[in-house]
Amino acid sequence: MAVIYALEDPRDGELRYIGFTSAPGRRFREHVHEALRTKIKNHRYDWIRSLLRDGLSPVGRVIVECPKEEAPLLERICIAVYRALGFNLVNCTDGGEGVHGYVYSDETRAKMAAAARGNKNSVGHRHTEGSKLKMSESQKRVGNRPPSHKGVKASPETRAKMAESHRRRYQESPELRARLSDVMKSQWENGTLGRKDGS
Hints:
Helix content: 40-55%
Strand content: 5-15%
Largest sheet: 3 strands, antiparallel
Order of helices and strands: EEHHEHHHHH
Radius of gyration: 20 Å
Number of helices: 7
Number of domains: 1
């Protein structure tokens, strides 16, 4: 089994990211860990880092359980639906396995090509004592991140606020409801609903 999950902003309860995993607790922690460790800049990492600067971390919530083989398709559908509803998602891709829908810039592609040439997987490379010390210190800092929300149940008031926020956004926008309906009808009619190639 797998789950489709969401990451929400604890400041306003806004849903910001959708993903799938078979281990939600671990995956929620990994999002924070990745944002701390990498120097890559993208919407998801920048959003998580902004929370961490305020002493907060994303709130993970399971949307639905599903068979593992159906998770990539269901993730794509959920991302499409929430985007059509006007949610400001920080997902870099359309969802599904891999990075379908993400277009690398020419500069990034050149960097990736250059990195792939030459010595593969640092074969024969030995880290200096200084490098080992830096890596050790980096790992220790990662352990000092804010506590996760694993096992912490939101209070009934907080849950009601989050539910009302999602409900209000959908109910107060007839144009979003109409747009979502049109998109889903069109995809249903031409047989492309949830297909990766979009054809």
